[in-house]
Design a protein that fits this description.
Helix content is 18%, strand content 28%. The termini are far apart. Strand 6 and strand 7 form a beta hairpin. A 6-stranded mixed β-sheet has the order 4-7-6-5-1-8. It has 212 residues and is an alpha+beta fold. The longest helix has 13 residues. The chain has 4 helices and 12 strands. It folds into 2 domains: 123 residues, no CATH class; 68 residues, no CATH class.
Length: 212
Protein backbone atom coordinates (compact mmCIF):
# COMPACT_ATOMS: atom_id res chain seq x y z
CA UNK A 1 0.00 0.00 0.00
CA UNK A 2 1.19 3.52 -0.78
CA UNK A 3 1.70 5.76 2.25
CA UNK A 4 2.37 9.51 2.23
CA UNK A 5 3.28 11.65 5.24
CA UNK A 6 1.88 15.17 5.17
CA UNK A 7 3.52 18.25 6.67
CA UNK A 8 1.53 21.05 8.29
CA UNK A 9 -0.71 23.24 6.16
CA UNK A 10 1.34 25.64 4.06
CA UNK A 11 -0.16 28.48 1.96
CA UNK A 12 0.40 28.18 -1.78
CA UNK A 13 0.10 30.78 -4.51
CA UNK A 14 1.81 29.32 -7.57
CA UNK A 15 0.05 30.11 -10.86
CA UNK A 16 1.84 27.17 -12.51
CA UNK A 17 0.57 24.64 -9.95
CA UNK A 18 -1.33 21.97 -11.94
CA UNK A 19 -3.69 21.48 -8.98
CA UNK A 20 -4.28 25.23 -8.53
CA UNK A 21 -3.99 24.89 -4.76
CA UNK A 22 -4.30 27.59 -2.12
CA UNK A 23 -2.46 25.35 0.32
CA UNK A 24 -0.79 21.96 0.63
CA UNK A 25 -0.11 19.81 3.67
CA UNK A 26 -2.68 18.75 6.25
CA UNK A 27 -5.23 21.45 7.08
CA UNK A 28 -6.50 20.47 10.51
CA UNK A 29 -9.56 22.70 10.24
CA UNK A 30 -10.30 22.04 6.59
CA UNK A 31 -12.74 19.48 5.15
CA UNK A 32 -11.13 16.16 4.36
CA UNK A 33 -12.32 16.55 0.75
CA UNK A 34 -10.26 19.74 0.43
CA UNK A 35 -7.25 18.07 2.00
CA UNK A 36 -7.51 15.22 -0.50
CA UNK A 37 -7.85 17.60 -3.46
CA UNK A 38 -4.82 19.61 -2.32
CA UNK A 39 -2.52 16.71 -1.47
CA UNK A 40 -2.95 14.38 -4.47
CA UNK A 41 0.29 15.77 -5.87
CA UNK A 42 2.88 16.64 -6.79
CA UNK A 43 4.85 13.64 -5.49
CA UNK A 44 7.94 11.76 -6.58
CA UNK A 45 6.56 8.23 -6.96
CA UNK A 46 8.43 5.14 -8.09
CA UNK A 47 7.23 2.38 -10.37
CA UNK A 48 5.71 0.47 -7.44
CA UNK A 49 3.08 3.17 -7.00
CA UNK A 50 1.48 2.10 -10.29
CA UNK A 51 0.80 -1.35 -8.81
CA UNK A 52 -0.85 -0.09 -5.62
CA UNK A 53 -4.63 0.04 -5.24
CA UNK A 54 -4.86 2.39 -2.26
CA UNK A 55 -3.03 5.29 -0.64
CA UNK A 56 -3.20 6.44 2.97
CA UNK A 57 -2.00 9.78 4.33
CA UNK A 58 -0.55 10.42 7.79
CA UNK A 59 -0.05 13.74 9.57
CA UNK A 60 3.50 14.02 10.84
CA UNK A 61 2.61 15.94 14.03
CA UNK A 62 0.42 13.22 15.47
CA UNK A 63 1.72 10.14 13.59
CA UNK A 64 -1.82 9.12 12.74
CA UNK A 65 -3.53 8.29 9.45
CA UNK A 66 -5.87 11.13 8.52
CA UNK A 67 -7.34 9.98 5.19
CA UNK A 68 -7.36 7.17 2.65
CA UNK A 69 -8.19 6.96 -1.05
CA UNK A 70 -8.57 4.38 -3.78
CA UNK A 71 -6.17 4.88 -6.69
CA UNK A 72 -7.63 4.97 -10.19
CA UNK A 73 -4.42 6.00 -11.93
CA UNK A 74 -1.23 7.95 -11.42
CA UNK A 75 -0.46 10.60 -14.01
CA UNK A 76 2.43 12.93 -14.79
CA UNK A 77 2.09 16.35 -13.20
CA UNK A 78 1.92 18.88 -16.07
CA UNK A 79 4.93 21.14 -16.06
CA UNK A 80 6.57 19.25 -13.18
CA UNK A 81 9.07 16.74 -14.59
CA UNK A 82 9.45 13.68 -12.40
CA UNK A 83 6.38 14.54 -10.31
CA UNK A 84 3.11 12.62 -10.20
CA UNK A 85 -0.53 13.26 -9.36
CA UNK A 86 -2.80 10.61 -7.87
CA UNK A 87 -6.26 10.31 -9.39
CA UNK A 88 -8.88 8.40 -7.45
CA UNK A 89 -11.60 8.73 -4.88
CA UNK A 90 -11.56 9.57 -1.20
CA UNK A 91 -12.71 6.73 1.04
CA UNK A 92 -15.23 7.17 3.84
CA UNK A 93 -16.39 5.17 6.83
CA UNK A 94 -17.62 1.73 5.86
CA UNK A 95 -14.82 0.97 3.43
CA UNK A 96 -12.42 -1.63 4.87
CA UNK A 97 -9.28 0.39 4.12
CA UNK A 98 -10.71 3.53 5.73
CA UNK A 99 -11.96 1.65 8.76
CA UNK A 100 -8.69 -0.20 9.26
CA UNK A 101 -6.31 2.77 9.01
CA UNK A 102 -7.93 6.20 9.34
CA UNK A 103 -7.66 7.46 12.89
CA UNK A 104 -5.08 4.82 13.78
CA UNK A 105 -1.34 5.24 14.31
CA UNK A 106 0.86 5.32 11.23
CA UNK A 107 1.89 1.73 10.41
CA UNK A 108 5.39 1.21 11.88
CA UNK A 109 6.73 -0.15 8.60
CA UNK A 110 5.64 3.06 6.85
CA UNK A 111 7.50 5.42 9.18
CA UNK A 112 10.56 6.84 7.47
CA UNK A 113 12.25 10.14 6.74
CA UNK A 114 11.05 9.98 3.14
CA UNK A 115 7.41 11.19 2.97
CA UNK A 116 6.60 8.49 0.40
CA UNK A 117 6.78 4.89 1.61
CA UNK A 118 5.16 1.54 0.91
CA UNK A 119 4.07 -1.30 3.16
CA UNK A 120 2.40 -4.67 2.74
CA UNK A 121 -1.28 -4.83 3.64
CA UNK A 122 -3.90 -7.56 3.61
CA UNK A 123 -6.80 -5.07 3.64
CA UNK A 124 -8.71 -3.92 0.58
CA UNK A 125 -7.84 -6.69 -1.85
CA UNK A 126 -9.30 -7.25 -5.30
CA UNK A 127 -9.81 -10.33 -7.44
CA UNK A 128 -7.06 -11.49 -9.79
CA UNK A 129 -7.61 -10.15 -13.30
CA UNK A 130 -7.52 -13.62 -14.86
CA UNK A 131 -10.84 -14.56 -13.25
CA UNK A 132 -9.46 -17.31 -10.99
CA UNK A 133 -11.11 -15.78 -7.91
CA UNK A 134 -7.89 -15.32 -5.91
CA UNK A 135 -7.76 -12.16 -3.80
CA UNK A 136 -4.65 -10.02 -4.36
CA UNK A 137 -3.41 -6.84 -2.71
CA UNK A 138 -0.85 -5.50 -5.19
CA UNK A 139 -1.13 -5.27 -8.96
CA UNK A 140 -3.74 -6.90 -11.19
CA UNK A 141 -2.68 -10.56 -11.36
CA UNK A 142 -1.31 -13.36 -9.25
CA UNK A 143 2.22 -13.83 -10.57
CA UNK A 144 2.04 -15.82 -13.83
CA UNK A 145 -1.75 -15.59 -14.17
CA UNK A 146 -1.50 -12.93 -16.86
CA UNK A 147 -0.17 -15.70 -19.10
CA UNK A 148 -3.19 -17.86 -18.29
CA UNK A 149 -5.55 -14.98 -19.05
CA UNK A 150 -3.88 -14.33 -22.38
CA UNK A 151 -3.96 -17.97 -23.52
CA UNK A 152 -7.64 -18.23 -22.58
CA UNK A 153 -8.52 -15.19 -24.67
CA UNK A 154 -6.45 -16.29 -27.65
CA UNK A 155 -8.31 -19.60 -27.53
CA UNK A 156 -11.66 -17.80 -27.77
CA UNK A 157 -10.60 -16.28 -31.08
CA UNK A 158 -9.06 -19.40 -32.58
CA UNK A 159 -5.50 -19.99 -33.72
CA UNK A 160 -2.62 -17.55 -33.30
CA UNK A 161 -3.08 -16.25 -36.89
CA UNK A 162 -6.80 -15.78 -36.14
CA UNK A 163 -5.91 -13.85 -33.02
CA UNK A 164 -3.42 -11.64 -34.85
CA UNK A 165 -5.90 -10.80 -37.60
CA UNK A 166 -8.59 -10.05 -35.02
CA UNK A 167 -6.26 -7.86 -32.96
CA UNK A 168 -5.05 -5.92 -36.02
CA UNK A 169 -8.64 -5.32 -37.12
CA UNK A 170 -9.70 -4.04 -33.70
CA UNK A 171 -6.61 -1.86 -33.44
CA UNK A 172 -7.36 -0.38 -36.87
CA UNK A 173 -10.93 0.42 -35.84
CA UNK A 174 -12.50 -2.23 -38.06
CA UNK A 175 -15.17 -4.77 -37.15
CA UNK A 176 -13.45 -8.14 -36.94
CA UNK A 177 -15.15 -11.37 -37.98
CA UNK A 178 -14.82 -14.11 -35.40
CA UNK A 179 -13.23 -17.32 -36.61
CA UNK A 180 -16.14 -19.27 -35.20
CA UNK A 181 -19.32 -18.57 -33.25
CA UNK A 182 -18.57 -21.59 -31.12
CA UNK A 183 -15.81 -22.09 -28.59
CA UNK A 184 -12.43 -22.83 -30.10
CA UNK A 185 -9.45 -24.71 -28.82
CA UNK A 186 -5.94 -23.38 -29.26
CA UNK A 187 -3.52 -25.87 -30.80
CA UNK A 188 -0.16 -24.72 -32.05
CA UNK A 189 3.55 -25.17 -31.74
CA UNK A 190 5.20 -22.12 -30.28
CA UNK A 191 4.59 -19.69 -27.46
CA UNK A 192 2.53 -16.63 -26.55
CA UNK A 193 3.94 -14.44 -23.79
CA UNK A 194 2.35 -11.46 -22.05
CA UNK A 195 4.71 -9.19 -20.13
CA UNK A 196 3.19 -6.63 -17.74
CA UNK A 197 5.56 -3.85 -16.70
CA UNK A 198 5.48 -2.04 -13.36
CA UNK A 199 3.79 0.94 -15.01
CA UNK A 200 0.89 -1.27 -16.14
CA UNK A 201 1.82 -1.42 -19.82
CA UNK A 202 1.61 -4.81 -21.51
CA UNK A 203 3.58 -6.42 -24.33
CA UNK A 204 2.34 -9.46 -26.25
CA UNK A 205 4.98 -11.64 -27.92
CA UNK A 206 3.85 -14.42 -30.27
CA UNK A 207 6.51 -16.93 -31.33
CA UNK A 208 5.12 -19.72 -33.54
CA UNK A 209 7.51 -22.53 -34.36
CA UNK A 210 8.56 -22.20 -38.04
CA UNK A 211 7.32 -24.94 -40.30
CA UNK A 212 9.98 -27.02 -42.02
Amino acid sequence: MLHITLAAKTPADDPTDPLQRTFYGWGEGDPVEQNWANNRGCWVLGARANRENYVIFSYYKVHKVVMAAEIDQIIDAPGRPGRKIIEGRLLSAGHPVHDRYVGESTPPSARARNPVTYFDSTVGGRLCGCGCGTEIFVGDFVRGHEQTALHQRVAKIGTIPDFLRWFDAVHAGLTPTAASSEGASLTFEGSVNLTVADDGSATITVKPTPRT
